[in-house]
Amino acid sequence: MNQAELPVAFLRHFEDQPPVKLIGKLGDAAVLQCRAPEPHEAMSSACIVIFKNQDEQEIKAIELLMAQQPRRKFIVLFPNLSVPNLKWCLDHRVEQGYMAPPPAIDLVDIKCRLNPNYQPIGHQQRHTHEKLRQTLELIEQRFGTPLSLQQLAHEVSISDSRLCHLFNQYLGIKFSNYLLCRRLEAAPDLLRDDGLSVAAIAYRLNFSTPSHFCRSFKQHLGLTPTEYRQLKKSESHSKVYHQYLKCRQPEPRTLICESG
């Protein structure tokens, strides 16, 4: 496909200089114009957004752009990929979100989204963290029920190994640890209800036994459930739980959680 046949796409960034390397890498799929699109321009032309600081000013500018052009396809690159960022993508109907700079497999995916006629060489099947986003939504809805990596991978149409890789690559935590910590995150609120026994909470959160719940709580939050119930707080998190909180919550500079 020659240059004249390539679709036009827009690139809205917040750096002092255009991202020349990224433009070059995407040049075989679309002709990129380094500016925000205007409402009168063809809605078939996608817009790539690259956050720099991901601060309130940048977020408001992009949310305004999206509100003015709700039919345009937006592809967003974040300085860090977190659960709040993925949720923001869902809330704002973003076509897809990626981590910047995007790895090779995501570059191919972006090209395919910019240009439906793009034919990646030797790339048979593309799975991106859209699948991860779908999986996280399912966990949010059903973490108190029996869940397995195999079951969720099947539901979002991805292989077990690929989904496992996405958790490690984008969130820095194993699937099993993420699910465990999500259940533990819900435990403190339940422990504040004196009408619920520790055993009842354990089964409500789908731990196999109360002792398994107590061991996990102690390991990752530094106290037993009974001790936590008495003190109402915990100041000693495990490394695994700390990493879980890091991917569940945005960094101080990241305000998407509040703005979403």
Describe the protein in words:
The chain is of the alpha/beta class and 260 residues long. It has three domains: 3-126, Response regulator (Rossmann fold), CATH 3.40.50.2300; 130-171; 180-248, Arc Repressor Mutant, subunit A, CATH 1.10.10.60. Helix content is 50%, strand content 8%. The protein has 13 helices and five strands. Strands 2-1-3-4-5 form a five-stranded parallel beta sheet, sandwiched between helices. β1 (8-13), α1 and β2 (31-33) form a beta-alpha-beta unit. The radius of gyration is 21 Å and the shape is elongated. Residues 122-127 and 251-260 have low confidence and may be disordered. One of its GO terms (molecular function) is sequence-specific DNA binding. Keywords: DNA-binding, Transcription, Transcription regulation.
